[in-house]
Design goal:
Number of helices: 8
Distance between the termini: 43 Å
CATH superfamily of the largest domain: Winged helix-like DNA-binding domain superfamily/Winged helix DNA-binding domain
Order of helices and strands: HHHEHHEEHHH
Strand order of the largest sheet: 1-3-2
CATH class of the largest domain: Mainly Alpha
Structural class: mainly alpha
Strand content: 5-15%
Largest sheet: 3 strands, antiparallel
Number of strands: 3
Mean pLDDT: 89
Length: 124
């Protein structure tokens, strides 16, 4: 049986599960700071509309994306604006692992500052 702490992390685990597919990661990366509609995702990934809709449903269920219907189109945006930053950090992990400890610390400090700057922009 799970303890209270692991029960509280269940919602966060759903977010990470939802991100566990390359197409969904692509969608989230491309939503950084903007709204897009399904047609943008179809054009960008060359996947079928039905496949993109399924991926968006997974992201909606995990509350990674929010959406707004405007006329015949539905526009998606991120519920967690820090996710693209997290993806960027994870993508850089192989490069960073080749650096000296001092260089790694510098890269991580730069990434931390980028996140702070990003979050401050969201407040304004």
């Amino acid at each position: 049986m799970a303890n209270d702490e692991t029960k509280e992390l269940a919602n966060l685990a759903e977010v990470f599960k939802a991100l566990g597919h390359p197409t969904r990661l692509w969608i989230v990366k491309h939503l950084a700071g903007k709204e897009l509609c399904v047609c943008d995702f179809v054009a960008g990934t060359n996947e079928e509309f039905s496949a993109i809709s399924q991926h968006l449903n997974v992201l909606k269920k995990a509350r990674v994306v929010k959406f707004e219907k405007r006329g015949k189109h539905i526009f998606y945006s991120l519920s967690y604006p820090c996710i693209p930053w997290l993806i960027d950090c994870m993508e850089a992990r192989d490069e960073v692992s080749q650096l000296s400890p001092d260089e790694q610390a510098n890269v991580f400090e730069q990434q931390r500052q980028k996140l702070i700057d990003h979050l401050l922009q969201l407040r304004n």
